[in-house]
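In this section we walk through a basic example: taking a raw amino acid sequence and producing a predicted 3D structure, encoded as discrete structure tokens. The instruction is simple. Fold the sequence below.
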Amino acid sequence: MDLASIIGIVGGAACIIMSVITSGGSLGGIIDIPSIIMTIGGSYFAIFIAAPLKKALGLFKIMGKAFKIPDFGEKNIVINMQALSEKARREGILALEDGLDDLEDPFMKMGLRLVVDGTDGNVIRAIMENEMNQCEARHMDWINIINQWAGFAPGFGMMGTVVGLIGMLNNLEDKSSLGPNMAVALITTLYGSMMANWLITPFSQKLLAHNASEMKAKEMVIEGVLAIQAGENPRIMAQKLLTYLDSNTRKAIEADVLKD
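The resulting token sequence is shown next.
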């Protein structure tokens, strides 16, 4: 569970509540069912027009990934790649075939299978990079839909405000209702802004960070696979892969993978 996402939602809600209370308002004053229907419901159903049905229905599942801390195994990639490289230099490339089925990473397995099959290094890079690019493209399709929702929400908030103002103007003879009606009309703008800036856009940014981490891990795999294919020294390969790691993770395994 990603505690940061929980803190962001709970902390943001607390700040909104405190702001309302300390400004002399009440929570009941910012809760309006018609505004919720217009802003949340209207903007969500706009996604059904902008995206395929499958993606519109699966959007919440994808956004739920923002509450998980992904582990793409960068540390294990370095360790496994060095072990495989040493095995290849000691026993030959074909010796790698015996352990391929035991690998949990399908991307790494695919690359090493190409190496065992004697595929040219340039071809291996092209295939693996295309696989990586297609994976990222799928991620970006989802993230773009989330960003579209973030753009729709403020627009529907303004639409709700206009609808509220129309209702208010139709009842101008009742002077006592102008203030309350104006407040309700502005609530939809508040909802749209909250959705875009407090929830939806931050979700897309968290998923972008997850995507970047996964692509970095795949780049490490590609570098390792090509180093094994080229017969590179395992120690040199490990040094290359260590450059992808943050300083703390690197220090934790550097002594083991670079030992003489």
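Looking at the output, two observations stand out. The two ends are 39 Å apart (CA to CA). The chain is about 75% helix and 0% strand. In the next section we compare this with other chains.
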